[in-house]
Amino acid sequence: METTRVAAAGLTELVPEESYALLATVPVGRIVFTDRALPAIQPINFVLDGPDVVFRTAEGSKLAVAASRAVVAFEADSFDAEARSGWSVVLVGRTYEVTDPDERARLLALPLDTFVPGERDRVVKIVPRIVTGRRIAR
Hints:
Elements: E1 5-8, E2 11-13, H1 16-23, E3 28-35, E4 38-45, E5 47-49, E6 52-57, H2 62-65, E7 71-80, E8 85-97, H3 101-108, E9 122-136
């Protein structure tokens, strides 16, 4: 098993297990994708399915483009400004729209509540290839 190591003064690199444990504690992250050949960032509600990030989006939305096997980054974090501590986790991987009826039904049953009103019927998975995390502690 990997061990945590100090990256720089005040920063600790997290092993993947720690990174995933922290990701499971927050409902919102940010997806970085390409929109009209430019980088774009958008907050999304998500849930973990093992190591994969699952989110829902609407047909025709900017995020619908991210469902077409695009390479994306996903970031989530939590910080305490007063204590000057917190963490950040970044995943880099490919997106896949889930179209298999059985898998889609299973993923739709996960506890994923979107904050944005309206129909969000496209189910997308980010399958990460790179997992990095850092903790800031005083």
